[in-house]
DNA sequence: ACAAAAGTGTTTACTGTACACCCATGG
DNA sequence: CCATGGGTGTACAGTAAACACTTTTGT
């Protein structure tokens, strides 16, 4: 059987929407490009897929070499194929989104970028390529996914309080959720486990600390949202 | 700005999971390959993406030239990147699924295939490449999507009865749904419109004919399933 | 003892679920 | 007039939504 190298193939890249949560704000990592095209423009981090790499390996390479991150939650989002999306020629982008805890990493600009900055999702600047479209789809996906899959904890520390989880949900969904109904729903789902320890050093009553229930079956969770 | 043609890029193909509904059975179109690799093996229809084609254009090309279909519902499913998925070399597959009404088309084998056949989703044979995995994901996607997006009518004639829609849902979800609760739920959602006409020529009471409500806002629809 | 945040419980409204009856048609 | 499938309605149960009170801590 012969290999097929006769065809010309589009370039293939992976682009990443890296979400981080900090101080009651959901943010996305953007790079400021220092090369054409879109020099001095903010874009999503990404890289071309090497012949021997899976998409996830390309993602890891970007996260490690450009952002100093490893071991983060990754999920494929969509593949973007507009023929005009890259002025250099035909290029496909397979978009992934990542959920990271910004406390664990310090981002620094790599060789391709002037700067690497967390931007709150409500203050995203103009982006190069079709990256605004990719970002919007990623945010929508995160908002719908968090309602039926236990992924919120990926953005928090290993131990967290109910209030922290509650505020995370309000922030991501951009709505207010009744504190008491949220608590009941989350606890009924066994999404999280009370560790028995408490966070102290605060001014008021010390809240219980929870951790994610790793034994949770994936579909065991369904949060309904009322405003 | 220079173009980037220095890199070697993976082959890029589109593969299609074409769903059709007929006689209370959900089926998928499969080709029997007549060339290596996987000669005489059933596979999903697909084609390599040309440099000037969007994914959807590639899908249309496959549907038209290989299957004689046009104007069908298409949605991107996922991109498959296992390095070993094609023995000829590195090949990415961007999978789409399609919903068609088999009454409208007659499938005939093209030059690449010995045969083109509708297989009931419960009787899918062994498939070449990673196509079984693609099929399984497509079926899951269809099953979850049909609960909150009005796409079921894509598989039916323009005018249909409530019973036909009801049976379609039972068939796709592989469960039984109470006839009367289904009816109320669907009508409340304004998913469909009663045309005022009836289907006659049947043995019993002539059922009302409905058509899809094209003015329906996309998110206005949510079907809960009980067994 | 006061303020502020955390933990707990109750009532109401709604939506899903189960189920029964009547209606229209062809044979 | 009977069998069969189609159309309509109702009672019950479970879940979501709105809401109030008590507890714990630091100052």
UniProtKB/TrEMBL annotation, chains A, B:
Membrane-crossing segments per the record: none
Q: What is this protein called?
A: 8-oxo-dGTP diphosphatase
Which Pfam families has this protein been placed in?
A: NUDIX (PF00293), WHD_NrtR (PF21906)
Q: Say which domain of life the source belongs to.
A: Bacteria
Which organism's genome codes for this protein?
Answer: Filimonas lacunae
Domain (Nudix hydrolase) spans 9-143
